[in-house]
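Why should sequence recovery work at all? Because a backbone constrains its sequence more than one might expect. Tight turns favour small or flexible residues, buried strands favour hydrophobic ones, and helices have their own preferences. The token representation captures these environments compactly. In the example below, the structure is given first.
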């Protein structure tokens, strides 16, 4: 009985004695400890000031328009950084070996929001003649649902004004097969009969191009495009006996580098 009581007392007093021991002292913080905890951190690489570029031929295609063979190009290129870029746009069309329309724009772009930028600069219409130079300004970017938007206004000599609106998007059919619908409208503020252009809604285009990406930078395509001269511009074309346009088949290459 006595042995049991002594064993119980030992079991109670032993943990109390162990807990009564003083903890080991914490050594003072040294300069070496501070240097290890707060090392000198050098600045990491920042790429927002790096100059980049892209040359894109969105359309480089052969057309078959009412029995006449034609060629068409539409290119957009830029050089610059994240916020400021120099844009060069060019597009045109040749029918039966003769250049029918040709134009170029040189624009400065400034980012105003994620995916959006304003642009301003000059535009040149080489064909149809006589050649014109325009002051140009607009906005471009990517709207919800990956809708590529481009709206540009132009002011030319003798009070001539114009505007162009372009909407484009892409639908992924497979990982490499893309359907690219496009809608483009041109509006003219003041008629220019010498160049065969009337006031108001001048031309309209709706296109569907199905492309296969051999790799992202190289993608041949086939398409069906409706392009037509409208309203007053269409009336001028009728008086001159010119083709108003319509549906035609296209085949081409989309490429960039």
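From this structural description, the recovered sequence reads:
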């Amino acid at each position: 009985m006595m042995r049991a009581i002594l064993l119980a007392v030992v079991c109670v007093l032993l943990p109390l004695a162990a807990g009564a021991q003083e903890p080991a002292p914490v050594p003072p913080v040294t300069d070496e400890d501070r240097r290890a905890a707060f090392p000198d951190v050098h600045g990491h690489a920042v790429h927002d000031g790096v100059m980049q570029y892209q040359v894109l031929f969105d359309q480089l295609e052969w057309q078959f328009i009412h029995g006449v063979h034609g060629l068409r190009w539409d290119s957009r290129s830029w050089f610059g950084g994240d916020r400021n870029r120099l844009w060069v746009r060019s597009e045109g069309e040749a029918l039966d070996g003769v250049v029918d329309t040709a134009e170029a724009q040189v624009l400065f772009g400034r980012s105003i929001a994620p995916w959006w930028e304003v642009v301003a600069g000059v535009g040149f219409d080489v064909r149809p003649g006589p050649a014109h130079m325009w002051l140009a300004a607009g906005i471009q970017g990517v709207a919800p649902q990956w809708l590529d938007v481009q709206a540009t206004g132009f002011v030319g000599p003798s009070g001539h004004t114009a505007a162009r609106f372009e909407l484009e998007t892409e639908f992924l059919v497979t990982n490499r097969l893309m359907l690219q619908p496009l809608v483009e409208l041109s509006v003219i503020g003041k008629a220019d009969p010498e160049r065969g252009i009337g006031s108001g809604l001048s031309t309209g285009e709706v296109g569907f191009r199905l492309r296969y990406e051999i790799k992202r930078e190289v993608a041949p395509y086939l398409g069906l495009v409706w392009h037509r001269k409208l309203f007053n511009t269409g009336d001028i074309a009728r008086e001159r006996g010119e083709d108003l346009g319509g549906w035609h088949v296209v085949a081409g290459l989309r490429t960039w580098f």
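A few observations help interpret the result. The chain is about 15% helix and 55% strand.
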